[in-house]
């Protein structure tokens, strides 16, 4: 598959590849959609393009205008790229848990990074959203893309992500695993599944410590998965199954995917790999299962793939045998 000449603005149909080695003893057909290959490095390229296009088409935003958004990393990178090629200023409101490499990438695209420090109640997401509101008041004409509530977020995945997966899978797919944060991706997939009367079951992969789907809030160190508040979009999401993954299992999942399949992915995809390890023992052999590779692992080299960071922040020393545990679980 190749990008069109207009690919500087438009997300492309990323490949769906069959994975033969990740859980080779599970007896399922396992597929990964490589949205880590989008120009900005994540599936948020689809979200950003949809959100910005909606504002430009409505006239609420014009070239030379300003976009402000609360982001933990990937959407900020995608918005920064989308804005720079359209002549729009972008301000990313982030907190201290933001991925440092992601911030460097945003700045490389010309974005302004606005850091919110130490909210009194510890709710970083709520503090970021308050800062967004303040910046909008201070900059008349500026807009926020509101990834947590805008219907253009799930629309991007209803109109592209899910139909692309189904076409590549030949119209037959038993389960789809999707990492959740704003829940826009899984909501768009859900809408497509229901409107097309598909039998595909949707599995929401969330972070331990996230409040999504009735979860209890707790400290989370890896950005991009889960939420500290309940996003408006999540109220419409009804997954067939929800799995909450501890951060150390995300790390194991990332490293297993890299060492088994040569796919370097971020923490949310590592969470999906860990979830697959839990679920596949109960999935009938011969089932067709797919998941999104939400983003590249390159911005996570100093965290997920760094032994010192893992030991200092997650309190564990990982040994090579740790990565075999997921495979053994899936083959039970």
From TrEMBL:
Top-level taxon in the UniProt lineage: Bacteria
Keyword annotations of the record: Pyridoxal phosphate
Regions that span the bilayer: none
Entry keyword Magnesium: no
Domain Tryptophan synthase beta chain-like PALP: 12-294
Residue ranges the record marks as coiled coil: none
Cofactor: pyridoxal 5'-phosphate
InterPro entries membership: Cys_Synth/Cystath_Beta-Synth, TrpB-like_PALP, TrpB-like_PALP_sf
PANTHER family: CYSTATHIONINE BETA-SYNTHASE (PTHR10314)
Identification of the protein by name: Pyridoxal-phosphate dependent enzyme
